[in-house]
Amino acid sequence: MTTANLSPQKVLEALPRSRERAIRADHLAEALKLSESQASSLAVFLKEFVRVGLAAAKGGSYWRKHASGVLIGTLRGTRSGHAFVVPDAQSERDTGDLFINARGMGSALNGDKVIARVTGVRERGREGRIEAVLHRANQTVIGTFVKLKSESVVSPIDERFLYEISITRSDTLNASDGDVVNVEIIRPPIAGRPPAGRVIEVLGPPSDPGIDIEIIIRKHRLPYVFSEAALAEAEHIRGELTAQDLFNRLDLRGLTTLTIDGETARDFDDAVSLEELANGRLRLGVHIADVSYYVREGSALDEAAFERGTSVYFPERAIPMLPERLSTDICSLKPKVDRLTMSALIELHSNGRVADYRLTPSVIHSRERMTYTAVNEIITNPEGETAQAYSHITDTLLKMHELTTVLIKRREERGAIDFDLPEAELWFNDEGQIGGIARSERNIAHRLIEEFMLLANETVAKHLESLNVPSLYRIHEEPNIEKVEEFAEIAASFGHKFSMHGPIPQRGLQQLAREIRGRPEERLLSYLMLRSMQRARYTPQNAGHFGLAMKTYTHFTSPIRRYPDLIVHRILREVIDRGGRQDEFVALDLGSKHAIKRLSSPVLEEEREVELRSALEMIGDHSSGRERTASDAERELMDWRKAEFMADRVGDEFDGIITSVKEYGFYVELNEFFVEGLVHISTLPGVYQYQERKHRLVGERTKRIYRLGDEVRVLVNRVDRVRHLIDFSIA
């Protein structure tokens, strides 16, 4: 199994709670199955634990101590100069983030893994200071090179990095004034002295084409170069299928299978099929690229996929999890060619309830590569030109649409919440420049694929859980009650009330989402509703999926671009191989708690189960972290593009809505464009008081109120392209 950075919280939780059961560091490393590099981190963690009182040591053995008000977490800086520690422990997360003012940060920098101590409780919540830095996240920093007489400095692009970095003459790498550079930190900030660094890469002037993507790749430390070993493995994989590849696979090449994706998609993870059976049931086929057949555990390709965790998609460029030979060719379910797949063949009653299913390695031959736009046109206009052009599959698509409506209704009855949050979509003019920014459309074709993938993911998750084999679940825990109450106050200010009491707590949020659909406040409240909830994540401990109202869920349908899906495929393949014949499987009614087990032999060897269980938690944590990083990078590039677009509109006026209120001002989203900017409090006449609980700023003399959801007209004052910041003022 692959390794990742060692979690200090996991080390702390692994320590015995009594002196009588104290453990030596080498025995602890063995119990945690640590690599050599992780074992060296372990020594640092234990030393700091003892220093701050989280642990005690005697004779080379360690045990955990109760230390009230001391926690481990990640430091997150803010534009205003202070920071928060986001706790790692679930119990601490429920209490909320820990506020750290500038004086309490010590040498810690944004993103560092730290130990913090609570020093008091104020109106804003808990406050504290940094006691120790356990792991430096910022080995390198991207910034703008500023040439001075005796020395130079680098001004970080990320405003959460709160220091300029001092550079000596010998460490400039001949950078020119104004260049964007990548700097290695060689000394953290100490006793009021700024950090020191050396330039390791000169990216060039900020106006260079494509430099924004290069900056974001380095800023978020996205792996973008495959190792020679991984590329060599990819090149040695045969592109043509042989009899050996097809051995022991279900041949589904006679089925009418289709891929349905966006216009610009290059890697096709999934294909779908639908058959009407003689018994009156429907058989839905969800066929997923069999990446695990090509990417074997422990291989160089596996190491590369694990390191990335997920593919990252920018408007003009993708950073794939796997080399393109696999991601866009051999594994991609291209039309008119045979491809290896893992298929979920799911028999459904007319009401959408699962009657039976089969999970099996297979081979398919996709008939068509369809787009969401084309499928939507066929469904909404079955007699139109697009439907005529695809007359050989129109009936299949219409039947898929009928099934989709049944599945949507069934999920809604269970309490699933539909977070229909639109994303920004760029469109370009004939010169290749950004011509506009609009909300992306989510039509019935998107819902069709979503529903089929949800059903396949749930089927696989329930299958593995019913066999009691180790697996990786996609969980979404119940929201923190305080955050829900805070959101309820905001919703009530717009005239919307909801309750999470009753047997299905999701029902209140579900009804609220339905109530605000199409209203001016829809996006704002949908976003805040999502913010009130916990993040979905990967873990081997099944805790259900609150948002989907599912007791058991996983990710199985995107192994080309998500590492957890690849892991689930591997486990499923092992289960199938251990089960013997192709027709031995588990028949499971997903609406009940009862499974009919037909496997006659043990599922996995005990040694293999132990190995999997010890590795899956680390894989889940790492994959969840990589998912967050990729999301942050994609969002930041879109913010950059928005800044470029608005740079030519300085001085123009627009109508918008206040989407967030802070102590330093409020953010406004424009109605005409899917763009957000800041109205800083310094641009408002007079003195304003920030009322956090009411999400508003109130003028002390004028009594003018700016609150969440208010409609305002703003003037575009300034645009900082490099920091992708847009400043407005009230028009």
Describe this structure in words.
The chain is built from 19 helices and 35 strands. The chain is α+β, with helices and mostly antiparallel strands and 731 residues long. Among the domains are: 8-64, Arc Repressor Mutant, subunit A (Orthogonal Bundle); 70-135, Nucleic acid-binding proteins (OB fold (Dihydrolipoamide Acetyltransferase, E2P)), CATH 2.40.50.140; 140-208, OB fold (Dihydrolipoamide Acetyltransferase, E2P) (Beta Barrel); 481-533, no CATH class; 648-730, OB fold (Dihydrolipoamide Acetyltransferase, E2P), CATH 2.40.50. Strand 28 (653-662) and strand 29 (665-670) form a beta hairpin. The radius of gyration is 27 Å and the shape is globular.
Per-chain topology:
Blueprint: H1 8-14, E1 23-24, H2 25-31, H3 36-52, E2 55-58, E3 61-64, E4 70-77, E5 83-87, H4 90-95, E6 98-100, E7 113-122, E8 125-135, E9 140-147, E10 152-156, E11 165-167, E12 180-187, E13 196-204, H5 211-219, H6 228-235, H7 243-246, E14 250-251, E15 257-261, E16 270-276, E17 282-289, H8 291-294, H9 300-308, E18 312-313, E19 318-319, H10 324-330, E20 338-348, E21 354-371, H11 372-380, H12 385-389, H13 391-414, E22 424-428, E23 434-439, H14 444-466, E24 473-475, H15 481-493, H16 506-515, H17 522-531, E25 537-539, H18 563-579, E26 587-588, E27 595-596, H19 606-647, E28 653-662, E29 665-670, E30 676-680, E31 688-691, E32 696-699, E33 705-707, E34 711-720, E35 725-730
Helix pairs in contact: 5-19, 6-9, 13-14, 15-17
